[in-house]
TrEMBL record:
Coiled-coil positions: none
Protein name: Glycoside hydrolase family 1 protein
Lineage: Eukaryota, Fungi, Dikarya, Ascomycota, Pezizomycotina
InterPro entries assigned: GH, Glyco_hydro_1
A Pfam match: Glyco_hydro_1
Species for this entry: Fonsecaea multimorphosa CBS 102226
PANTHER family in UniProt: BETA-1,4-GLUCOSIDASE (EUROFUNG), GLYCOSYL HYDROLASE
GO biological process, one term: carbohydrate metabolic process
Family named by the database record: Belongs to the glycosyl hydrolase 1 family.
Length: 673
């Protein structure tokens, strides 16, 4: 695939009405010139051929037809100062008029606004109620396990561990009742001097929300019947465990109250499998307390006027899939970062049974479902991938054909977009294609295109399970959109410069330092600059690459796109000692506003159907043994569990509210249930 940036036009008037997304801005290169869609007059015109004769060599590279995917732009040397498109073409150098001296006064006008809470809407159902779906499941048994006794604190032996048993039992043991958020806490911060100046709008049904996951926020690890999961045994050293985290299991109503008060419409969360089925396998008892907990959570989300978005499995596979050998959880995978246990011979049947239980109980109230979160990262080998695909497909068919659900289903995929180090170098372009297809194509080819695994995957994972024609027919079309977590971009080239052979040599050498991606990844471009502003972790601010990535996904897999996670852990934020400094997170505001600005451009200028975006995360949380990478839109006091809104939360919500069409006036993005 050719990596280039699509040529687009500068708006004639910054705030005139934009065209509909299905209008193509660049029509293509013709023999007599370049067809251009004139925005201001809503007519088409052509530039004279003389204008294109000296540009033909690079236009041929930059333009490659309607609907083509694009990626990193070419480096085109220019001279002079930076462009100022908002200014007149011929500058006026007239002299300013200085005013006479006058009495000085300390006065400056500044508007003061408060966040607007989301308002409850009409009740909508997306499937028959649970009572009418029980016949779809084999007989279920329900059990209620006891709660930990808070008085047992004295007998705990890990008093030196701030996140151990003693610490947990000293905290809550009942659900916290929600209280209204004080108006003083909802006052918007002063606006930044620089900010987006676009005049585009999101469709009225654009899904904007925030996200979190059970293992990273719930705590209450062994309370009310929950059994151990992979997340409980993942960290074997002295780093923080997931035992306490944000105590969202008890704090969820106040959490939702805070989100609703900020005007957030969609709340994306995950279920803890081992909280609903403590013994994991089909035929074992369902934990009534766990099932009721999530039902109550969903009801409260709806009561506050929000829409629940549910992930069935977000990394926290029950520990039973590692059998008696819990050390297998630390085994190095052939593919992903961690061993998710998906390759276990009982996994598919157990997962499908679990998914059927939660769907029959919640599908009437939940319109958007994700079966797996980033399955690539926790796939151990080729059998893991096969099991994920077939389990997902079974759940999709159950939802559509047995439940007759009218909502949407997909998976959440990871892939920090690989862009070629030098887009004019075919070897770097090949490396970028290899990198992206290896992480996405193994799932997306069968699901969205009905096609076999990409060569990049089959060459790297020799134990992959071949997909028969009947497998592809069953899996094809089992997702209604592509969910992607595009946190950042990475600069890609072959392991050995200018050698695609070095990629293939790596694919057969598991001891290679480049395995399994088999490319060189860097944060530096050919000009020697970082690809973007650095965070506390791997994330760099790369908004223009996000826009190109959305085009790549849309035009490669031919489906609408939803950004299911994106976020930025500000560098050094955990080291801030005062609350006011923790709340003033300007780099995160830059990240979110620049990314969403590029999403708007992808919609309006590239014609990409982006249906939603979910910010990660709504509060600082447990990042798999780490509390220093603060991704949250709210701070969390680890002693008191108090939350406070950060500046970026206000900035992001205000950006979205300002740019989302009202339902009665705006066009719909086609996201209907």
């Amino acid at each position: 695939m050719l990596y280039a940036e699509k040529v687009t036009l500068v708006w004639q008037s910054v705030c005139q009405q934009p065209p509909s997304p299905d209008q193509q801005h660049v029509r293509g290169a013709g023999t007599n010139g370049v067809d251009i869609y004139n925005e201001s007059e809503n007519v088409r015109s052509k530039t004279p051929a003389s204008y294109t004769s000296n540009m033909a060599s690079w236009i041929a590279l930059l333009l490659f037809g309607l609907g083509s995917a694009t990626a990193q732009q070419y480096y085109i040397p220019v001279t002079g100062t930076s462009a100022r498109p908002q200014c007149q073409a011929t500058p006026s150098y007239s002299q300013p008029t200085y005013s006479p001296y006058s009495a000085f006064a300390y006065s400056m006008t500044e508007t003061v606004r408060t966040a607007t809470s989301v308002q409850p809407g009409p009740t909508i159902t997306y499937a028959p109620p649970a009572a009418s779906l029980t016949s779809l499941l084999s007989s279920l048994s329900f059990t209620t396990w006891g709660k930990w006794d808070p008085n047992a604190t004295a007998s705990a032996t890990d008093t030196d561990n701030p996140y151990g048993d003693a610490a947990w039992t000293a905290l809550w043991n009942t659900t916290v009742s929600p209280t209204p958020i004080p108006t003083t806490e909802l006052v918007l911060p002063p606006p930044d001097y620089f900010g987006p100046t676009d005049c585009y709008y999101f469709p009225a049904d654009f899904q904007f929300g925030v996200a979190g996951s059970a293992a990273q926020i719930e705590g209450a690890t062994a309370d009310e019947g929950k059994s151990p999961s992979l997340m409980d045994i993942l960290i074997q050293d002295d780093r923080p465990k997931d035992y306490v985290t944000n105590e969202n299991y008890y704090y969820y109503k106040q959490e939702i109250e805070r989100l609703a008060s900020m005007g957030v419409k969609y709340y994306s969360f995950s279920l803890a499998w081992s909280r609903i089925l403590p013994f994991a396998l089909p035929g074992t008892p369902v934990n009534r307390q766990g099932l009721d907990h999530y039902s109550d959570l969903i009801d409260f989300v709806l009561e506050k006027g929000m829409i629940p978005v549910l992930t069935v499995l977000h990394f926290d596979t029950p520990a039973q899939f590692f059998a008696a050998n819990l050390s297998a959880a630390q085994a190095k995978p052939l593919i992903g970062y961690s061993n998710g246990g998906y390759q276990n011979e009982t996994f598919v049947d157990a997962y499908v049974n679990y998914a059927k239980i939660v769907m029959t109980h919640y599908a009437d109230r939940v319109p958007i479902w994700f079966t797996f979160n980033e399955p690539f990262i926790y796939s151990f080998n080729g059998l893991s991938v096969d099991h994920v695909l077939k389990a997902h497909a079974q759940v999709y068919h159950f939802y559509r054909e047995s439940i007759n659900g009218t909502g949407k289903i997909s998976l959440k995929f990871n892939d920090n977009f690989g862009v070629p180090r030098d887009p004019a170098n075919p070897n770097d372009v090949y490396a970028a294609d290899h990198f992206n297809s290896f992480q996405l194509g193994l799932f997306c080819n069968p699901i969205f295109l009905g096609e076999d695994y990409p060569d990049s995957y089959k060459e790297t994972v020799p134990d992959y399970v071949p997909l028969a024609p009947e497998d592809l027919a069953y899996i094809n079309g089992t997702a209604d959109f592509l969910g992607i977590d595009p946190y950042t971009a990475t600069v890609v080239s072959p392991p050995v410069a200018n050698s695609t052979d070095s990629i293939h040599e790596c694919c057969t050498n598991t001891s290679s330092t480049y395995f399994p991606y088999c490319v060189n990844q860097s944060t530096l471009t050919t000009t020697g600059w970082d690809v973007g502003y650095r965070s506390q972790s791997y994330v760099y601010i790369t908004p223009r690459y996000l826009r190109l990535y959305l085009s790549y996904l849309y035009n490669t897999f031919h489906t609408p796109i939803v950004i299911t996670e994106f976020g930025f852990p500000v560098f050094g934020e955990a080291e801030q000692t005062t609350l006011s400094d923790q709340l003033s997170d300007m780099p995160r505001s830059v990240y979110y506003l620049s990314y969403m600005s590029e999403v708007l451009k992808a919609i309006w200028e590239d014609g990409v159907h982006v249906a939603g975006a979910f910010a990660w995360s709504f509060a600082d949380n447990w990042e798999f043994g780490d509390y220093t990478a603060h991704f949250g839109l709210q701070t969390v006091n680890r002693t008191t569990q108090e939350r406070r809104y950060k500046k970026s939360f206000f900035d992001l919500v205000d950006f979205m509210n300002t740019r989302t069409m009202p339902p009665q006036q705006g066009w719909s993005g086609g996201w209907t249930f």
